[in-house]
Amino acid sequence: MIYLDNAATTRMYDEVIDIEKDFEKKYFANPSALHSFGMEVENKVKEAREIVASNINSNSNEIYFTKGATESNNIIINSFAGVNNKALTTKLEHSSVIDAFENSNFKKIGFINNDEFGFLDLKDLEEKIDKETKLVSIIYVQNEISTIQNIKKYLK
């Protein structure tokens, strides 16, 4: 079989599936539980946080694990929402981002224009951002047209 929808999901390597299966058999307890099985899983979660943090040069207390992108997007967007706050995003965001913004309570949500290739209009971003803007959400790699934004350019 040839699978061509890797923008939606990608099959894991067999080796990863085997490791995950073995892990799930051994470490199945609730990491918040106070019994030894739970504490063992909690230690594995802490260890995973430390591995991720060291690979991205951050602190382990800055690493949060979620079930997926939709949950992550909702947490971030809603943590910045507020009746006095504005947000900016792109017209090319993942549907979970658009849905989260539509269901949030921002004072205003603005959309940054893009060109015909999906790259952001930097001048439009500069014109729309102001002191009330608490969140700017820009998809780094667009999941349908594969545009890769030059984020460093926007941070200047």
Automatic annotation (TrEMBL):
Pfam families: Aminotran_5. GO terms for molecular function: cysteine desulfurase activity. Residues 2-153 form the Aminotransferase class V domain. Its cofactor is pyridoxal 5'-phosphate. It catalyses: (sulfur carrier)-H + L-cysteine = (sulfur carrier)-SH + L-alanine. InterPro entries: Aminotrans_V_dom (IPR000192), PyrdxlP-dep_Trfase (IPR015424), PyrdxlP-dep_Trfase_major (IPR015421), PyrdxlP-dep_Trfase_small (IPR015422). Belongs to the class-V pyridoxal-phosphate-dependent aminotransferase family. NifS/IscS subfamily. This is Cysteine desulfurase family protein.
